[in-house]
Amino acid sequence: MAELASSRQLRTAYLRWAIIIVPGILLLGLLSGRLSNSGYGNPWFDALNKPAFMPPGWAFGMAWSILYILMGLALALILNARGAKGRSIAIALFLIQLGLNLAWSPVFFALHRIMLALGLIVAILLWGSVTTVAFWRIRPLAGLLMLPYLAWLIFASLLNWDVHRLNPNGFSVIQSPGGTTIVIQ
Predict the structure, then answer these.
(1) Domains, the chain, ranges and CATH?
(2) Whole-prediction pTM
């Protein structure tokens, strides 16, 4: 005979998922950024011309921390929705978009591939949108928790595009130790 879980048991199960998933996603995001030397302080990035609407460096760390927490909470809701129709597909979609997300910093900051990074961020936005719809169908709150991420991806796409526009030869920008910027054409 099957028994229904109480609301307390459901909350406890959700918290167990969240305690594991949220720090895990935060750690993965941190590793992706650190290993690719992302952000200000990267000599290549520092040598690039930046758009006027580029936020200060601290804003990126804060924004991504919040977004990864929200994404982790959304995933925990879906993981806790055992038996829900489409749950496995939603989890797979999330993992695909997260993998693409984690690849962006290495592509942009380590490989210096601005346009490849733009294509990647557009793919992240598309997979993230499909994931958000799948999450929404299972748990509307999970879909809502993904919306700030989608908004940030749109903003990040605009930033990525403008960095390319301002640095058409950005791949070949080299910051020499003496502070001179060299562009190889």
Answers:
(1) 9-183 (1.20.1260.100)
(2) 0.88
